[in-house]
Design brief:
The protein is an alpha+beta fold. The protein has 8 helices and 13 strands. It folds into 3 domains: 3-74, no CATH class; 98-196, no CATH class; 206-329, no CATH class. It is 47% helix and 21% strand. The strands form 3 sheets. Strands 6-7-8-10-9-5-11 form a 7-stranded mixed sheet. Strands 1-2-3-4 form a 4-stranded antiparallel sheet, with helices on one face.
Length: 336
């Protein structure tokens, strides 16, 4: 189709967009380099390789995605064709037929700590929000003043990739909305406040506990990796009641073993319904904290630091009691 047959509106790209992408790219490059440097040239155990390899693959994949985004964002645009809205980001195109659009809102979205590609000044692909759930974003407005397009879903006509909600940010917002309004008969409204909190929004807003839980796991693994090369090949992992060492283990299994054993338990909530998932994360979080504290105690003790054993005993008693209380009093109520 000739370009004169459709209108083009570019995204509202601002300096904060590039700043966020560049900062994240630097972090993704510096983090692996820092981890490798912390090993100080020491031969890497096979188990450590199995941990680091997937981590580095994730870092590399995200870095490549961000580099592509840096070059594609200036040309991100929204094309109003005769029968459809086409969203263009680099080689990627999303086609939204006008007859599938239910309504168009201009609104602020509520932050959810569990999200994918969302940073200040940029939100791309499927992003989770506390009020709207998952929104397919092609926007340089991550939260504020987002043009939200609600679509109906129908897979019967080959539109299997059509999402229910899209978020965009045309620079000429008024012009875009005016042109879009001429092409379809739907409601275009500005929503200044959230007057209704749906059950779905309440469930999404509670997902911060999952963010905290996985944050503890990731931070603990980073701490283990940083101190790994400082430890002897065989470390103390157990003491008797008088504080005398009576259990030894190779440093890889001594540091990573407990966490690796618990990984299947950590993954269980991902396959549960939301209510049970929330409860399981709440129950597992004190366990994750306790395991991290015990492993940090082992690391510091093997590095020569003297720590009162009673402090660890108190921590174990506290977090075990907390886990039991959460398991009892936060258990989901079953319908009779």
């Amino acid at each position: 189709m000739d370009k004169s047959d459709y209108e083009v509106f570019y995204a509202d790209v601002k300096p904060i967009t590039y700043a966020s992408l560049i900062c994240m790219l630097i972090i993704l490059i510096v983090a692996p380099v820092g981890i490798l440097n912390s090993l100080n040239g020491e031969p890497i155990a096979l188990g450590l390789i199995l941990i680091l390899a997937p981590l580095f693959i994730v870092f590399l994949s995200l870095a490549v995605l961000i580099i592509i985004a840096i070059f594609a964002i200036p040309r991100m645009r929204y094309e109003l064709h005769e029968a459809e809205l086409v969203i263009v980001l680099g080689p990627r195109k999303e086609r939204i037929p006008y007859n599938y659009i239910v309504n168009v809102l201009v609104r602020d979205l509520s932050l959810n700590l569990i999200s994918s590609f969302r940073m200040p000044g940029i939100a791309l692909f499927d992003v989770l929000y506390s009020d709207e759930g998952i929104v397919r974003m092609y926007s340089t407005h991550a939260l504020k003043d987002v043009v939200l397009i609600n679509c109906k879903s129908d897979n019967s006509k080959g539109l299997k990739t059509l999402k229910k909600k899209y978020g965009i940010s045309p620079k000429d917002k008024e012009g875009f909305l005016t042109s879009l309004g001429k092409r379809l008969n739907v409601e275009i409204a500005y929503v200044t406040e959230h007057k209704e909190i749906t059950q779905k929004a309440v469930k999404s807003s509670k997902s911060f506990i999952a963010f905290i839980f996985w944050g503890i796991i990731i931070v603990s693994f980073v701490i283990y990796i940083v101190f790994y090369h400082l430890l002897p090949q065989t470390i103390v992992v157990h003491w008797d009641l008088q504080g005398n060492p009576n259990g030894y283990e190779g440093k890889f299994w001594g540091i990573f073993g407990i966490q690796l054993i618990f990984i299947p338990a950590y993954l269980i909530p991902l396959f549960m319904k939301m209510k049970n998932r929330q409860y399981t994360y709440e129950t597992l979080t004190p366990v994750a904290v306790l395991i991290a504290l015990v492993q940090i105690y082992i690391i510091l003790t093997n590095l020569g630091y003297r720590i009162n054993n009673r402090l660890l005993d108190i921590a174990v008693l506290l977090f075990v009691s907390l886990t039991i209380l959460i398991a009892i009093f936060r258990a989901p109520k079953t319908k009779k």
